[in-house]
Write a structure and sequence with these properties.
30% of the residues lie in helices and 36% in strands. It is an alpha+beta fold. Strands 1-2-3-4-5-6-7-8 form an eight-stranded antiparallel beta barrel. A hairpin with a 5-residue loop joins β7 and β8. The protein is elongated, with a radius of gyration of 21 Å. The chain starts with a helix and ends with a helix.
Length: 203
């Protein structure tokens, strides 16, 4: 793919106009038009500014694939939690939307009933080196104050993730537990089972 096509396609994917991109990159909008039509090629410093504005690398801007993992789509998340001293595993559907190295995540249904402490939440993650996701989450339900952090390791084939969460519980206590995600509820729950078995074998 030629650079002009990359600029145009990525700009549209991000919902940016040529003027938006020009302003973000600090160039004239007429230049963006020239780059997209292939009439001109940007200088390296300008290409770097455009790549930053488009949230891609200069290599990707030049039309070379990055082999970057893309986690956009529907996933299932499983969380090890407890309430009243009783362990619970909550599994719920979530949606992820990746923009460069940023990943926006939100639950689409509770994993536990409200009576059991289930709630809706959203957060933001960052993808590091195509294998690690770190970030935060916060409850969307107004009456619940839960919020915290997530650390997830992505399987090389991108089928599931495993890690931990640390956060503020419903009673304002600091809690932690295993976390897993998969493309299906079965994948997520299988990953959680492996984490729990591994923990049991270390005790």
């Amino acid at each position: 793919m030629q650079m002009g096509e990359v600029i145009r396609q990525r700009r549209r994917d991000l919902g940016m106009s040529q003027s938006d991109l020009a302003q973000a990159a600090g160039v004239d909008a007429r230049q963006i038009r020239r780059y997209e039509t292939g009439d001109q090629q940007p200088l390296l410093t300008v290409a770097m500014a455009i790549a930053d504005a488009l949230q891609i690398s200069v290599t990707e801007l030049a039309g070379r694939p990055s082999h970057r993992v893309n986690v956009t789509g529907d996933w299932w998340a499983s969380w090890q939690t407890s309430r009243g001293g009783e362990q619970k595993i909550a599994t719920q559907p979530v949606q992820m939307r990746q923009e460069g190295d940023k990943v926006f995540i939100a639950s689409t249904r509770r994993g536990l009933s409200e009576e059991e402490g289930g709630y809706m939440w959203s957060g933001e993650l960052r993808l590091w080196d195509n294998e690690i996701l770190t970030g935060w989450y916060a409850a969307e339900d107004g009456s619940i104050r839960s919020k915290g952090t997530m650390y997830l390791v992505l399987h090389p084939h991108g089928v599931y993730m495993e890690g931990r969460w640390v956060g503020l519980g419903y009673d304002d206590s600091i809690m932690t537990g295993w976390a897993s995600m998969g493309k299906t509820s079965e994948d997520s729950e299988a990953a959680m089972t492996r984490l729990l078995k591994g923990e049991a074998s270390r005790q």
